[in-house]
Amino acid sequence: VHPNVSHGCQGGCATCSDYNGCLSCKPRLFFVLERIGMKQIGVCLSSCPSGYYGTRYPDINKCAKCKADCDTCFTRNFCTKCKSGFYLYSGKCLEKCPDGLEANNHTMECTSIVHCETSEWSPWSPCMKKGKTCGFKRGNEERFREIIQHPSARGNPCPATIESRKCIVQRKRCQKEGKGKKNKEEKRKKSNKDESKETRQESKGRAARRQNREQRENNNKTQPKKRKAPNREQDLAPVDTAH
Q1: Which residues form the Spondin-like TSP1 domain (predicted)?
Q2: Which of 8, 29, 39, 128 could pair with 44 in a Cys bridge, judged by C-beta atoms 3.0 to 4.6 Å apart?
Q3: Chain centroid to CA 76: how far?
């Protein structure tokens, strides 16, 4: 260490020198040596850089290097990420995964082998031929199942998800598409015609009722009012002439 030690340092250093950089760090900071050419310079960081792990001591916090095959680590014996060409397993970096495990080239880890899983078969479909369920005696029916879990690279592959078998049914005639459309069109026209007929009848009924009402009102206006007949019994009553 260079004898010229200073206490007025910058960058988190507690003590430093012009030649060696930081000699000690402020509380909670980590001391690490960085190589620049042939010499090493001390620096103080809030966290250790990649390839190092931190250890705390009563007098100083230091960053130490991970193992050569480890890119990042928690301690020297527990790696969290391996360098290229190695696979991570239980904190260690391996060139080859143990038996029962497979190498995942995406995460660069040793993972469990996953086999394919499928659902139960669906019920058999109706007997069909060329997409129709009529006009034949011998056809085919199918059933399906879905893939629940896709396999990993070394897992058992998925089986078939569709099964087909021959079937025999009682032949039935297919209804012609044109005839069916024609019948539907005729029914629709007939329904519209009946609705129009009912509408016309209702309109005629309303018009007739309105005309009768107007005729009665006109008759009441033109017919002279009847005079009240005199009370003949009152006119023929005897006159008292006693006085």
Answers
A1: 116-170
A2: 29
A3: 44
Tokens, residue 121? 């078969």
Give the helix, strand, coil percentages of the chain, each rounded to 5.
Answer: 20, 35, 45
What token pair was written down for 77? 């014996």
Decide if domain 117-168 falls under CATH 2.20.100.
Answer: yes
* Residue 107 contacts residue 131 (beta carbons within 8 Å): no
pTM: 0.49
Beta bridge partners of 112: 101
**Radius of gyration over every alpha carbon of the chain, rounded to an integer in angstroms:** 53
Please enumerate in sequence order all residues whose Cβ is within 8 A of that of 88, keeping only pairs 6 or more positions apart, or say none. Answer: 79, 80, 81, 82, 94, 108, 109, 110
Give start-end residues of each CATH 2.20.100 domain in the chain.
117-168
Structure confidence by residue, pLDDT tens digits, 77-119: 899 999 999 999 999 999 999 998 999 988 899 999 999 999 9
